[in-house]
Structure formats: C-alpha cells, structure tokens
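go over this chain:
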Amino acid sequence: MKIEDGQKTLATRADLKRVGINVSNTTLLRWEARGRFPRRIRMAGTSVAWFLCEIEDWLAARAAERARTHYAEY
C-alpha cells in the first residue's frame, strides 16, 4: 500500500516484496546500517516505511551496477 505524504510516496514492507526485494528484516537492517539500502522511516510503534523515490533510485543503481560489472563466466 502506498501512502501519500505531501510530495513523498511511502512504500511498505509489502511494497518492497512486490518489487522483488524479498529479504529478511534482519538483512534490511544490516544493509541500512552499512549504508547499502535507504533508511526506513518509523511511522508508529513497529510500523515502518521507506520513501518510494529512494527505493526506485536504489533499484536503478543496482541495474547500473549490473550493466557495468562483468561477472565470472563458467
């Protein structure tokens, strides 16, 4: 579910899964702590969300990295 917050759209954990970011909460927390994933926003209690524009930018950066990285061939 996406929620409009002024000019920012928020993405929930379910939204992350819908776009293919299907990792554990522990992994997301680890990535965030290391600066490898956008930081979450605490909504209330245990509810969190992310700015959708930051998630889209992160995905675009992964795609760009994929385009310029040569992986080992078997």
Summary: The two ends are 41 Å apart (CA to CA). The helical segments are 13-18, 25-33, 52-68. The CA atoms of residues 10 and 51 lie 5 Å apart. The longest strand covers residues 47-51.
